[in-house]
Every structure is written in structure tokens, then in C-alpha cells.
Sequence to fold (425 residues):
Amino acid sequence: MTTALETCFRGVTSGVRMILERCLDGHELSIDDGAALSGARGRDLQALCMVADELRRQQVGDRVTYVVNRNINFTNVCIKNCKFCAFARSVRSEQGYFLPQEEVARRVCQAWEMGATEVCLQAGLSPNLRGDSYIELCRVVKEAAPEIHIHAFSPEEVKFGASLKRVSYSDYLAELVEAGLGTLPGTSAEILDDRLRKRISPTRITTREWLDVVTAAHRLGIRTTSTMMFGHVESVEDRMRHMDLLRRVQRETGGFTEFVPLSFVHEEAPLFAARDVPGVRPGPTGDEVLRLYATARLMLGPDIPNLQASWVKEGLRTSQLLLSCGVNDLGGTLMNESISTAAGARHGQLMTPATLRRVIRDSGRVPVQRDTGYGTIREFGDTSDQDPSEPLDAVEDPDASFGSYEALTSDSRFHYEPRGLRVVS
Fold:
């Protein structure tokens, strides 16, 4: 144990110290021990964060990664009625939109010209979609920018597409890959517990179905991310069981590239506004976020070494703090961000590469631009060098350059028409 850690352990309660020392010795963090760490305050919390930071250093070193990407949420019309979602609109809403094929292609080309290596496609489950819609959408992207990586379609969307096409998850995923799909986002997970899911999203994909889609993808060699939404109605034990389930999947398949905790954004979420679910909270507190990320490093780091902070959810300052609590990735530039913004997130829709590098360097770490699979594109190791000029760094007004969610929902060109399919010709 380093001198700094020995000093940090002074004044730490015996139970917390025992758990942390066991983790430093390479022992697995159990669900019960993880739940016990949720009570860490003051010196206990400082020690937890220092141990998470030390394990991060041992597992992935001092490099902090980011990816240059663009989100394209091609429709907000959805047949589901998830209580935590402020993004979705009904088929009768005046704010419903559906991007036509040529607009998706235009946004992909713009992203490629701006230096993006990835586009992330996720959207509502529109009645206008049919079995081949996601497959055709991949072809549209690849025709527009053949070299760009397609990171697309949550397990919920894969389930939806496969059911429309009446094929198995594996067969559907294989068709997506043939059309150009690279990886899947591991969203629509929230908390993987059906008792809780029935409270916040009763018509959502079940835990078993989510696991079936993800493991089917992993068996086909399609890697996915993994996520957890926290700070709403779940208990500490729910969080630990969720992470333990992800750990077990990873040990079986090795298919997760990263873990991304997602703070519940409550301001516009129906779950909070309607107050029809007892016990709903207005998202996690600041210390709660630090505890969760640090605990995630202890529980998942040996199996899922990449821990990503969501600057959209947490803001850039808190994300920088999290670099000292086990985090080694700051996610993507995004360019467009509609889902968290619709729920009330106030941290913008674009983070330039230069800004991310400045924050990383200010934390004493090494900035690295990565690809979707965590391969290195460029390491910025010499802090004395000036960062190269990139097109995205010149963007001053993201809303003017890429369009805001508000503008998208009010643009008559993209207004949802509850008839036919506008993504597929």
C-alpha cells in the first residue's frame, strides 16, 4: 500500500477500511460490501475515491480517452410510455419528428467532415418503422460515409426490429452487421430488475430480453456498452445487483467495452413531474455520484476496465472530479444531444475535443482520442505541444451548427406523418 493510501486510511471506519483493503488485495467486491460503501461519508468517501483512483491506475493507467462522434436521434415518436423519458412524443403530438433518409445522410456526412469516427443512432419506436428500417438505415449511413463506425440501436430497438421482421435476435443482428452495424449501445437497461422496471417503464423490454439481446450480440462478435440509470426510485441494493449482473455477463462473454452510469435527470421527466410513483427522487446528490462511480470501479474494474463519465448528465466540472474517482473515459463529443436535453440536462449538446483535452490535462492525465472499441487513434502525450486545429474545435454555437432539439421538434420539414416510412424509401 502506498504512503498516500496509508495516510488516507487514518480516521476511516474499520468496516469501510476492511472492504477497501480487500479490494486493493485483489478480492472481488460483493453486493453486500458494495451496498455498505454507499454509507461512505467524509474520510470514508475520500478513502473510497482514492482506492478507486489507485485501482484505475493499476487497471488502465493514466490515459483518459474520448471519441469524436455524433448522435442522430432520427425520431422522437414512440409507442412506449416510459415514465422517466421526456424525449418521446406520441403519434398525435405536434412536436413529433421523423428524419427523412436524405437528412440522416446529410448529418452523417457533416459529422465525417467534422472529424467524427462514429455516429450513434438511437430513437423512439415509431409505428412508421418496419422490420427492415434499421437495416436500411445502416446502409444509408455507410453509403454516406463508408469508413464511419455505426454504434446504433439499443436492445429495445433490436427487440422491436426483430419482432417486426419476425426473426430471432441473432438473425436480425447478423443482418444489421451485414448492412454496416459495428457496435450496440447498452442502453434501455435502467435497472435490470423487473419488479422495479414495472414501476418506471411497465411496457419496456424485460431484464431477460435485454440480456438475451446483449448476449446474442456478444456471441456474434458485436461488442456493446453497458449502462445503469440511477437516482430515481431504486435502492442501493438494486444498483449493486445490477452491476453484479453485468459483471457475470462480462465474465461469460467478454463483450462489454465500457460501463456508463447515468444520473437520472428529473426536471422534465414525467416520473418526477407526475409524482405517480412513490419515492421518486430528483436525481442523485453530488457525493452520491462520486460514491457510485468509485464503487463501480471497485466492482467492475477487473472485468470491465473502462468507466465512462457522462458529461451530458454530470457536467464537465463533476466529470473532471470523477477522473479522481475511478473514471478513465469522458465519452463522446456528441454534436447533437436530444434525450438528456429533453429531460432538463443543462450541459449542452457538444463538447469539443480541445475542451476535453484541456480538462484531462488539468487533471494530470494523458488525453487520448479513441475509436468506438477503445483502440487508440491519437495520444496527446506531450503537454508542451499545441493541439492541432480540428474542424469541431472551431464550432462556437452548436445549435446554429447542428440544430437544437427544440428546433428539430418545430421544423416543419421533419414533422412526423403517421403514415408510410420516411427513413426508408
Summary: The first strand starts at residue 63 and ends at 67. The longest helix spans residues 43-60.
